Amino acid sequence: MAKEKGKQDLYRGSIVTLRRRCGKPNCRCKDGKPHETPALSYSVKGRTCMLTLLEADIPRVKAGLARYRRELAALDAEALRGIERMRKKTHADKKAAR
Questions:
Q1: For site-directed labelling of 11, which of 31, 34, 49, 73 has its Cα 20 to 30 A away?
Q2: What is the pTM (predicted TM-score) of this model?
């Protein structure tokens, strides 16, 4: 599927740092600091998924996460406005029926 021209990606989830020891006997991680890899943690149907990232991808992913949060907040606000309109309409309809 082609991305719309000018449309930026949205990402849902969190950036986390995976830390692990590789198990190679001569690696620095055996006795020292473990290997670290940035990853995007997200859920699909209740299951946690991880997408490892390149360091160069982190700013783009952070921006996409921020866009997602803004869009979600705007959608929630619109839903609350719709509920408020329905509440007023229902109240007016009940009042008119008396």
A1: 34
A2: 0.76
